[in-house]
Amino acid sequence: MMKIAFIGFGGVGQALAQILQERKEKLEAEYGLETKVVAVSDMMKGSVYHPDGLDIDRLLTIVRETGKLENYPDTKGVIKGWDSIETIKNSNADMIVEVTFTDVETGQPAIDHCRAAFESGKSVVTTNKGPVALAYPELSELAERKNVYWGFEGTVMSGTPALRMPVVTLAGNEITEIKGILNGTTNYILTEMETGKTYEEALKKAQELGYAEADPTNDVEGYDARYKAAILSSYLMKTPIPSKEIPCKGISHITHEMVQNALNENKKWRLLAKITKQDGKVTASVQPELLDATDPLAGVTGPTNAILYECDLAGPIMLTGAGAGLTETGYSLLIDLIDYQKQKTLERI
Ligand code: HSE
Fold it and tell me: How far, in Å, is the centroid of ligand 1 from the Cα of 11?
């Protein structure tokens, strides 16, 4: 029985809790994944812990109706008020689901949460890009030394398996290049501009639809895609590159005229993250590129993401799908939990 502590309980955490509840029988029967949520600790909503497990339906109803975990019934054995680090260290959870609001520039508080979990011999699954983009060498070494699991499938393309698919299914190939449209907001803006909107109009619409943040700098200047390029380089190319060292150009300088001129020449602008391996050396970059309209990546429109792996044996393979969304990102955590369960069955953890 996997005992789970949620650190952070916003939309993504709640989506995973709901999936675990709704698919309980199937997950147990098909994957041997038996779970129990023992703790939830959220900076805004408070915290609740019971070593024997909490009632997920009740948790979700209370959080959705009152916004406060303190309103969970005080039955015997319930402890309230632990902060995130206390919950990680003191609870009997063996799996920490780390889904806090983390500052992607510093990676905090998620980096400290991962570190505390690994040092306590606990595994972590997270959708936070910060710890993987900024502290992969340290954290992966610590997790390995403590023989615990670290899953982060959702950090690139949410529930579209951009990390697991190449490792598991494309195993045996040499991947020489990875190219991707890894940011939904910018792809939405560029493709809206193809329909005649100005940059400002397209950005405003992206914000209204909730794709872009209120401060869209991370998206439009390419920083979000750059973090993802750093993750791909560490995890798939086995070469950590500090994200600040990845050359990066966003799309805020792209004008209506540039997009229309490109269309007249049968070309399209796409913001591409690229990681290339040549003579054993790995380089990465993020910048808008002009693609032929027939290029498969040019055909990716709206907030959809896509990634293309150049494989030496299988040739180019492209994966396309959502790059964000609560259920999709909640599902990315389930991919990791099922993988953890498989590794455990194989006695690798
Ligand atoms: N803001 C990101 C995007 C979502 O627009 O793709 C998740 O990284």
Answer: 15
Phi/psi of residue 268, nearest 5 degrees: -140, 145
C-alpha radius of gyration, the chain, whole number: 21
For ligand 1, the distance from its centroid to the CA atom of residue 12, given in whole angstroms, is 13
Work out the pLDDT band at 242, boundaries 50, 70, 90: very high
* Whole-number Cα distances in Å, 156 to 235, 263, 307: 11, 29, 10
Q: Nearest to residue 225, comparing CAs of 200, 250, 202, 253?
A: 250
Q: What is the pLDDT of residues 329-340, one digit of tens each?
A: 999 999 999 999
What's the maximum distance between 2 C-alpha atoms anywhere in the chain? 71
Whether 218 lines ligand 1, by a CB cut-off of 6 Å, is no
324 lines ligand 1 (CB under 6 A): yes
pLDDT, one tens digit per residue, over 186-234 is: 999 999 999 999 999 999 999 999 888 778 999 999 999 999 999 999 9
The best mutation among 101, 192, 211, 223 to test binding of ligand 1, ranked by most ligand atoms within 8 Å of the C-beta, falls on 211
The catalytic site residues sit at 228
Average pLDDT (52-78) is 97
With residue 260 as reference, give the H or E element that holds it: helix 256-264
Cα(49) to ligand 1 centroid in Å equals 32
Residue whose CA is closest, atom 4 of ligand 1? 324
pTM for the full model?
A: 0.96
Q: Using the 8-state DSSP alphabet, how is residue 128 labeled? A: -
Query: pLDDT at position 213, please?
Result: 76
Domain 164-322 has CATH 3.10.20.30: no
Looking at domain 2-158+327-348, its CATH class is: alpha beta
Place of tokens 């040549």: 278
At residue 174, the pLDDT reads: 96
Which pLDDT belongs to residue 315? 98
pLDDT at 281: 97
* Domain positions in the chain: 2-158+327-348, 164-322
Confidence of residue 348 (pLDDT cuts 50, 70, 90): confident
- Ligand 1 pocket check for 304: Cβ under 6 Å: no
CA 71 to centroid of ligand 1, rounded, Å: 33
